[in-house]
Amino acid sequence: MNNIFNKKESQTLITGGCFCGVITYKINGKLRDARSCHCPECRKAFSSQASAYALVNPEEFSWVSGKNMLTSYKSKKGEGLQFCSICGSTLCGTFNGVIQGVTLGCVNDDPKIEIGMHIYVGSKAKWEIIPDGVIKYQEGSPEKI
Ligand SMILES: [Zn+2]
Ligand SMILES: [Zn+2]
Which of 120, 128, 141, 143 is deepest in the core (most CB within 10 A)? Predict the structure, then answer.
């Protein structure tokens, strides 16, 4: 490891971890493009009404503990998820094995980012009520993210 700590001392370190606490990670940088996707695939992948997910620079992300307890799932398209094999928390999203983003539910404290948009609300679950006032799109965002 180089002098990354000295260089970014003023920046708040983002940390996260799974429900049982065995797997933890840190991000020496910022999260970006936080979004919530309400499509059926994301509902399954996140076991929830929608995803809550933000992108991360892969080189700024590192596992702190429990990496050997991660299980990786990869879809045919190359998109994948990594989750704790003990408690089942989904921690991050990958593309061809490289970390692309983290699930906001497993981030500790205040990562200084808010969900900027709700996408694929046109295919949301019938039982979900989306509050007024949030930025939402029937399908994907008009800007490509
Ligand atoms: Zn766990
Ligand atoms: Zn989705």
Answer: 120
